[in-house]
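note to self: dont lose this again. the chain is below, predicted strucutre after it. 270 aa total, dont forget to put it in the shared folder this time
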Amino acid sequence: MVSPFLLVSDEADCPSAYISSVSASTDGMFAVASGQVIFRKRGDGKWSREDHGLPEGTMVNRMQMFEGTLYVCTNMGLFYHDSNRWHPTDIRIPCYQVKKQGDFVAAATEYGLWCKNGNRWECVAYPNTIVYELLLTPQYYILGFPDGISLYDRLTGSWAEFPLQSAVTVLEAYRGFLLGVTLEGKLVQGNKKGEIHEFGFEGLSIYSLKLTETGVFVCSSRGLYRLETIGSTLFLRSMLTGYPVSDLHCSGDCMYLATLFQGLKKVELL
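---
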């Protein structure tokens, strides 16, 4: 089912039917096939493999772009793209996320939270714990762990932990709510009163949350949804269903959807 407000078309010459991630930078559009092979679409509209500089056996966990530079978090470490190749950073351990806020750059890794100090990376917290996700806000650094969420208050310099039943792999903030996704595909929500709860939607597993200028989109096993709120109640508004959507990238009035069986889709708002 497609919302009447969307025009959906196939991305021409998509290199694979199984696209796990999609992003773009000043170097073009990038798509990850099956979590393993990175393809790049240049200005001429043609796709080609773009794995020069990545070690053999690299698996991509996430793509992240800021200030025009594309980063990939992989099982071999953190890499960035420049001059038609990938370059390694000092993080050579499994990396799951990288975020930037002003001059502050941080990465979630297999061995804790790492921060960039000048040109060097160093572990600053939880060196013996996997950190799957991190969210940077003006007051807090929020981390997703195998057993819940940890929050660092920048004003007081203190940590607070919120145990949950499963690992938290996605974090986002929307209208003052802390949102997340667990490894099992359930939604996590903070109630603005210091409590965090997780709940699921029957027959649906959430893969990721994408904050855009028009709201939060939910990529799931059943398609694309928009997250809506009535007071403190969250609900999903169906946008595009019928096949799994794993990731999306916004570009002007268009969205590019990574799907697990239908390749790359281009979605235009009518």
